[in-house]
Design a protein that fits this description.
The structure is a single chain. This protein has helices at 34-45, 61-69, 104-112, 118-134, 152-165, 184-203, 226-234, 254-258, 265-284, and strands at 21-30, 51-54, 75-80, 142-144, 168-169, 207-208, 211-213, 241-246, 293-295. With 302 residues, the chain is an alpha/beta fold. The strands form two sheets. Strands 1, 2, 3, 4, 7, 8 and 9 form a seven-stranded parallel β-sheet that branches. Strand 5 (168-169), helix 6 and strand 6 form a beta-alpha-beta unit. It is globular, with a radius of gyration of 18 Å. The relative contact order is 0.19. Residues 1-16 have low confidence and may be disordered.
Length: 302
């Protein structure tokens, strides 16, 4: 697999002689709800976002597509989804008794135990890609909701479709200083991500990001502000392309309504609060305005 950015003999440099870092700032969950989609567009219009990934099985999907059409410079990929809403196919091993997708933890447990039908994952991915194209879009790349494509058994079912239809793929490669003192559980998860990323790069012939960072990897103990983004970016090598994942949700009550009876409502509300903080920081500050940062999409970085 080739990296998404092949290093030239002379790297571009900023005004003060620093190497220009190529950065994909990608917002997940486009189409999840109106507040999510409009929040993403807010940040794009502020010049602090280059890319997003669309969920195609949500009530807000078509509204998000309309927003994307009005902002053609925004790169749009597929946010493959196996853990939110309902499938587009008959996928009995992927849903609960009400026909809704399983929560991530249960999906992973079933997958590890061999209780997920691999063909159902393949068919659901195909259906979501077909829906994406039918909406008039061409995917710049693919990632997944809650990183489920990084689960080895899930990726194996996806691989044949990815090889044929997807030009670029996010790999979650923990990088930089995410916590000052990583906990053993965090270190174990990061090790699993690195092993999975190496396997995916061997099996996927298209382009991938070189590394991956996000404030959400820091947790709440780390101060969330403009400087935290810069600190993350500076903590990884300047060569290649880094994806910075963001979730800028605008303030509204639609998600409170959506998750009113959710079994993990408290977890979701805490996450949403963090996402609204991210929206505020990214719309009120020129986080990526320095001349040593170039925002690109997956298509532009190829």
């Amino acid at each position: 697999p080739r990296p998404i950015y092949e290093r030239p003999s002379i790297r571009p440099r900023g005004r003060h002689g620093s190497v220009v870092r190529r950065l994909i700032v990608n917002a997940d969950d486009f189409g999840l709800a109106r507040s999510v989609s409009t929040g993403i567009i807010d940040v794009y219009q502020a010049g602090q976002l280059s890319s997003t990934t669309l969920m195609v099985n949500m009530p807000g999907t078509e509204e998000a597509v309309d927003l994307a059409e009005r902002h053609p410079g925004l790169g749009v990929g597929l946010h493959f989804n196996l853990t939110e809403g309902r499938p587009l196919t008959d996928a009995r091993s992927l849903v609960d008794s009400d026909g809704a997708f399983l929560l991530r933890g249960e999906l992973i447990r079933r997958s590890v135990r061999g209780r997920v039908e691999q063909g159902e994952i393949t068919r659901e991915l195909t259906a979501q890609l077909d829906r994406f194209v039918s909406l008039g879009l061409t995917p710049t790349h693919l990632d997944s909701h809650q990183h489920v494509h990084m689960v080895p058994t899930v990726f194996r079912a996806m691989a044949p479709v990815l090889r044929e239809r997807i030009p670029a793929l996010r790999v979650v490669v923990p990088a930089g200083h995410h916590t000052s003192r990583p906990q053993p559980a965090t270190m174990a998860v990061n090790t699993l991500f690195r092993l999975s990323a190496a396997s995916i790069r061997r099996r996927f012939p298209g382009r991938t990001n070189d590394r991956f960072v996000s404030l959400h990897q820091l947790g709440t103990a780390w101060p969330w502000n403009k400087d935290a983004y810069r600190s993350l970016i500076d903590s990884v090598p300047s060569q290649g392309v880094t994806e910075l994942m963001v979730h800028p949700f605008a303030a509204a009550d639609d998600l409170e309504f959506r998750y009113a009876d959710d079994p993990i409502r408290d977890v979701r509300m805490a996450f949403i609060a963090m996402c609204r903080t991210e929206h505020r920081i990214l719309t009120e500050n020129g986080v990526f305005d320095d001349d040593d940062i170039e925002l690109v999409t997956y298509a532009e970085a190829g």
